[in-house]
Backbone:
């Protein structure tokens, strides 16, 4: 009997914690419906969603530079084959399965979603405006590359298909968004660069007006005088910036304080937040340079030859870098040295002397040293992962060049020429005698190389499909990237771009 | 480690010092494997406490109640360091301490009723309730940038790291709970006809409210033909039975957060939407149908079975791509497609010699299998390949109409005689061609074992093998390619001495060049033992045994071991049959002496 009593007691105990309701629970993370999820927290993460698609070497930057005459990712024997991803970019033979292009498209749209999420959590007018700026920037990049911009105004039910915005209408929508928020954004200045601001919104509007004719018809764009006038008006509203006395101060580890040109940049603060900005120097430097690089990307000799020898943008020494490691900034060609002036060697013991010529598939015995290397961002020797160079999205020289272009396209080449020569004088180049579409495009290349604008520029100037070094002429479908197959499979509202 | 050892120039000494970790190796990017071994330390300690109680009570002669409670408490600590002096890019000395803790509990009640209803009909019925609870938490800290104090582990002075170079984290997974109600009936009639039917109702709190529970029935029957009167006195069969079964089981393997839109808490004021919710996710169902024959002839000296099975997975739980704009990157859902596995399994067992002093048994089994993914939308990449020069490349796909993890690669046509470069099959327009080129799933798996007893001697061997599948040699692809010569590193032997000279600049594009047949037969283990028996009055049942494991492999596979499956998943989608620098399988030879007192 005693045993039976014990058993009954046991049964009562065990049944008291059985037959649960099986409810979902959360620990260590929040549910979107929670009241502790707030606009400030979501806005901070929305800013950070821009880091990977813009800063990583295999995202929007690769799509905008490797596909042009400014950059190439040569296969160097056992290195950098990467299943051909770099070759097809430069060759214009990518397809709708291209991993980096697919990832870029997806990550830009994720940034749009992160920004829109802020709007559902009772943001202040300024928080809402900042979020809508982030959204506008990501939508601009998608429009520019893929034309079709999936857009969600309602985030409640994500099983519903997004609306697809396209072409000039998409540009108009983004402009209307920027006009709607500009009063709620804080003023911009060269000391307020890592948050959305009025001037950043103006530059983005300038980009949209300047390219609106492209978005309407990429093969044969026309540029409406009204749009060009908007570019000029917006440029004139942006004040308080000047050309930096040293070109490379715009990209240095302390560019947030040194540069007088930056209007909007992505924040890189070691130990807090940042992106893969150090890849800009890792992907080009040789193993035996400092820092030891990945010996990958280069520019091409035709591009190098667009510079005058005195142009500091072609090459310079830079305090904090050249005196530390011997590394110069700008375009690196010929023998490389360490800080003591000792000539460096490659891994086989041959001189580390970068050649002018590079092939998309290197087959020679000197394949380690081929191609002209590019150091636009002076390496940060103090901090890494991330290095503390803020990643520049918009800067004053670009505003000046866009205004010059709008003037040129509205028949005022003289005023445009004056602006261009102001920049050239600052950079150590001689004045141009006249301004044409061709030499303005070249000037944009010289000023903005490896900053992620070359594809946009070549398309607008009608040069993107031309043959250039290590690339045959390509056909008009290449003016757009294909809609990635992974998104086509799950979104029937998207249609593959023509020709793919 | 393995990669660096393979690449090491065999003519260079392995000497090193902290001041010169490369030693006599060539180039700043060469890692000396001996220095690497000394610079790395990774220690994992796990403590587990298990407790069970299972009282039972006979309520009547036929009815018994059983209760089972178990708890498994585990804590683990992992301490990792990389010494500052090792020449890895970006290394400034690294230390990490990670802790985790799990508490898993289970609780079962069963009522079991056994009754011979008539002399011919027996009944066994069981009903039960089961509850499982899983609780997992963890935390960790890491630091970069240590001052190197030789002889002291970094993880013993983590405070040395400057504050900007420290990071920490902690997490607590949602508590997962499962509860099930189940019943089973066994009926036996005249020892000739056996019938079993079960039904389970399983619930899991991982699913949303609408789909918490799934019901999974099964039924199985067996006809023991040899017990029928018409075979009662036959000389041939001592046992002959026919079996058939059909049953369903549920699967709920996915993260517990899947039905919710989760917001992660980041550093400072940072909240990020981390996943797309799927409140409609439901149980994955596996339906297994099986028919089989068991037999035993020659007085039971030869017995065996033949089975045919067909296993169909419906509503497979899988990660699907989010329709953007949305949170990253995939969400868990039930796919439209089905996965079908079918095959035949044969097992034979022979007592070849049966006598007082000498006994010899032989067992053979073989399984022939086939799997296919059906009605699947789109293609999912997996099998990410590793190594410098092939970043981002994948080798396998999940795609409708193909076996799981089918290889999707360029077709290698050989080395060009004039250029020394690889030639690949191209599309008619000259562009690169990737196609489905083989399956990593074996068509046949075999096992063979035999044991021999002679008086006090005992010997046994076990062989296993697999046939009809392909393995990918990622090690040869990226660790030992011809281009290593440029940087003074080692290359694989098969690249030397052919009739065509491969150029050192030949790119290492993933292709069928590195795809090899995985067929093998392996001597898994072999034992020779001698029974000493009782020695004096103290030692009883003494035995001496010599055991060898992994003694030989017959295969044409050029990697370490054809039984290989390095984890090369892409976003959680598993890979299969890829080798990348695994530790070679050890060959163990063991001499043992056992006794009781």
Residues:
């Amino acid at each position: 009997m005693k045993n039976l009593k014990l058993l009954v007691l046991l049964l009562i105990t065990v049944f008291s914690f059985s037959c649960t309701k099986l409810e979902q629970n959360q620990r260590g993370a929040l549910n979107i419906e929670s009241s502790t999820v707030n606009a400030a927290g979501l806005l901070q993460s929305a800013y950070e969603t821009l880091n990977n698609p813009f800063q990583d070497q295999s995202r929007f930057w690769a799509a905008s530079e490797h596909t042009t005459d400014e950059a190439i990712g040569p296969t160097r024997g056992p290195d950098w084959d990467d299943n051909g991803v770099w070759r097809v970019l430069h060759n214009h033979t990518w397809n709708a399965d291209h991993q980096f292009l697919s990832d870029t498209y997806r990550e830009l749209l994720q940034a749009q979603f992160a920004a829109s999420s802020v709007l559902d959590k009772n943001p202040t007018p300024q928080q809402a405006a900042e979020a809508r700026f982030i959204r506008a920037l990501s939508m601009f990049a998608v429009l520019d590359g893929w034309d079709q911009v999936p857009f969600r105004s309602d985030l409640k039910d994500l099983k519903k298909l997004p609306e697809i915005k396209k072409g000039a209408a998409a540009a108009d929508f983004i402009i209307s968004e920027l006009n709607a928020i500009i009063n709620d954004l804080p003023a911009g200045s060269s000391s307020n660069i890592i948050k959305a601001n009025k001037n950043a919104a103006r530059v983005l509007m300038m980009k949209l007006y300047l390219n609106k004719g492209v978005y309407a018809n990429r093969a044969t764009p026309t540029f409406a005088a009204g749009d060009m006038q908007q570019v000029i008006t917006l440029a004139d509203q942006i004040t308080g910036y000047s050309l930096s006395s040293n070109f490379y101060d715009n990209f240095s580890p302390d560019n947030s304080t040194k540069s007088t040109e930056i209007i909007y940049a992505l924040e890189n603060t070691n130990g807090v937040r940042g992106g893969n900005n150090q890849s800009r120097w890792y992907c080009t430097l040789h193993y035996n340079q400092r820092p030891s690089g990945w010996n990958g990307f280069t520019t091409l000799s035709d591009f190098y030859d667009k510079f005058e020898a005195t142009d500091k943008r072609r090459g310079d020494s830079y305090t904090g870098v050249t005196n530390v490691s011997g590394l110069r900034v700008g375009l690196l060609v010929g023998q490389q040295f360490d800080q003591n002036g000792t000539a460096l060697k490659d891994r086989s013991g041959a001189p580390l002397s970068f050649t002018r010529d590079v092939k998309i598939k290197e087959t020679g015995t000197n394949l380690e040293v081929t191609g002209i290397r590019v150091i636009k961002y002076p390496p940060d020797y103090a901090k890494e992962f991330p290095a503390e160079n803020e990643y520049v999205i918009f800067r004053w020289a670009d505003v000046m060049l866009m205004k010059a272009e709008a003037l040129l396209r509205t028949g005022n080449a003289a005023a445009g020429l004056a602006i261009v020569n102001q920049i050239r004088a600052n950079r150590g180049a001689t004045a141009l005698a006249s301004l044409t579409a061709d030499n303005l495009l070249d000037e944009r290349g010289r000023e903005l190389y490896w900053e992620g604008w070359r594809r946009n520029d070549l398309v607008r100037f009608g040069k993107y499909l031309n043959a250039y070094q290590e690339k045959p002429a390509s056909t008009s479908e290449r003016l757009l990237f294909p809609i990635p197959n992974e998104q086509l499979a799950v979104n029937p509202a998207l249609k593959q771009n023509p020709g793919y | 480690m393995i990669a660096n050892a393979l690449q090491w120039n065999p003519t260079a000494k392995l000497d090193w010092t902290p001041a010169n970790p490369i030693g006599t190796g060539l180039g700043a990017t060469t890692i000396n494997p001996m220095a690497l071994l000394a610079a790395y330390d990774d220690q994992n300690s796990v403590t587990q406490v298990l407790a069970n109680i299972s009282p039972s009570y006979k309520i009547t002669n036929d009815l018994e109640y059983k209760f089972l409670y178990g708890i498994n408490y585990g804590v683990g600590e992992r301490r990792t360091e990389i010494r500052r002096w090792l020449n890895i890019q970006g290394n400034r000395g690294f230390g990490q301490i990670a802790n985790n803790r799990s508490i898993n509990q289970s609780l079962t009640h069963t009522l079991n009723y056994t009754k011979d209803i008539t002399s011919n009909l027996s009944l066994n019925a069981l009903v039960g309730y089961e509850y499982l609870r899983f609780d997992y938490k963890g935390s960790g800290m890491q630091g970069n940038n240590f001052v190197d104090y030789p002889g002291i582990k970094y993880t013993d002075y983590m405070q040395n790291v400057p504050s900007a170079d420290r990071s920490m984290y902690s997490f607590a997974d949602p508590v997962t709970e499962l509860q099930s109600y189940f019943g089973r009936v066994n009926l036996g009639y005249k020892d000739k006809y056996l019938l079993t039917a079960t039904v389970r109702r399983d619930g899991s709190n991982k699913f949303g409210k609408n789909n918490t529970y799934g019901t999974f029935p099964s039924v199985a029957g067996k006809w023991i033909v040899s017990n029928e009167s018409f075979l009662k006195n036959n000389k041939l069969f001592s046992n002959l039975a026919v079996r058939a079964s059909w049953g369903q089981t549920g699967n709920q393997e996915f993260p517990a957060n899947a039905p919710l839109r989760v917001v992660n808490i980041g550093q400072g004021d940072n909240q990020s939407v981390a996943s797309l919710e799927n409140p409609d996710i439901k149980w994955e169902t596996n339906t297994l149908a099986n028919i089989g024959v068991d037999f035993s002839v020659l007085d039971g000296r030869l017995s065996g079975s033949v089975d045919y099975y067909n296993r169909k997975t419906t509503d497979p739980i899988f990660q699907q791509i989010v329709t953007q704009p949305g949170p990253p990157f995939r969400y868990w859902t039930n796919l439209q497609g089905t996965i079908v596995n079918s095959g035949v399994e044969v097992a034979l067992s022979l007592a070849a010699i049966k006598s007082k002093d000498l006994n010899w048994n032989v067992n053979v089994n073989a399984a022939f299998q086939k799997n296919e993914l059906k009605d699947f939308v789109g293609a999912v990449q997996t099998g990410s390949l590793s190594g410098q020069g092939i970043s981002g490349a994948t080798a396998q796909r999940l795609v409708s109409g193909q076996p799981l993890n089918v290889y999707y690669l360029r077709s290698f046509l050989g080395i060009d005689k004039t250029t020394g470069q690889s030639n690949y099959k191209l599309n008619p327009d000259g562009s690169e061609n990737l196609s489905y080129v083989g399956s990593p799933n074996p068509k046949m798996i075999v096992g063979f074992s035999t044991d021999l007893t002679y008086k006090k001697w005992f010997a046994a061997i076990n062989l296993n093998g697999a046939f009809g599948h392909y393995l990918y040699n990622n090690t040869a692809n990226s660790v030992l390619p011809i281009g290593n010569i440029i940087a003074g590193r080692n290359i694989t032997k098969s690249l030397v001495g052919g009739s065509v000279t491969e150029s050192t600049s030949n790119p290492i594009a993933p292709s069928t060049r590195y795809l090899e047949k995985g067929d093998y037969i392996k001597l898994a283990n072999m034992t020779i033992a001698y029974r000493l028996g009782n020695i004096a009055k103290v030692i009883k049942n003494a035995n001496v045994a010599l055991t060898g494991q992994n003694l030989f492999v017959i295969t044409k596979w050029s990697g370490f071991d054809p039984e290989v499956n390095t984890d090369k998943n892409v976003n959680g989608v598993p890979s299969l049959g890829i080798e990348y620098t695994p530790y070679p399988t050890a060959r163990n030879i063991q001499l043992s002496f056992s006794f009781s007192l």
